[in-house]
Amino acid sequence: MKPHLRRCISCGKVAPKDAFWRVVRVHPSHQLQLDRGMGRSAYLCPRADCLKVAQKKNRLGRALKATVPPSVYEILWQRLSTATVPSPPANCERHDEPTTRQGHSDDDIRG
Ligand SMILES: [Zn+2]
Hints:
By secondary structure, the chain is α+β, with helices and mostly antiparallel strands. The protein has helices at residues 48-56, 59-64, 70-83, and strands spanning 5-7, 14-16, 21-26, 32-34, 39-44. It has a 3-stranded antiparallel β-sheet with strand order 4-3-5. It has a two-stranded antiparallel sheet with strand order 1-2. The structure holds zinc ion. Zinc ion binds at residues 8, 10-11, 13, 45, 47, 50.
């Protein structure tokens, strides 16, 4: 039995549908929802590149023949950020170290 292959709307990669996010235009309300529901579906790699293209070029909206509310993209971006935890840049300096005052006398304070 063949696996159910789907195609990413942004990069065109073909993979089993489990590998993609699924966005569904629910029938008959035409509301968009993620992962589940009956209706027209679009598939998207869980990658920043593909999400960016889908958003910028409205690939999602065209594939679904629907207006994609910003909240849908927000949820996907959030998923992306929680799925991959970026490490903070190494050159990020900390400025909250306790400062050690040396040799400060009252004489230093002038007008
Ligand atoms: Zn893709």
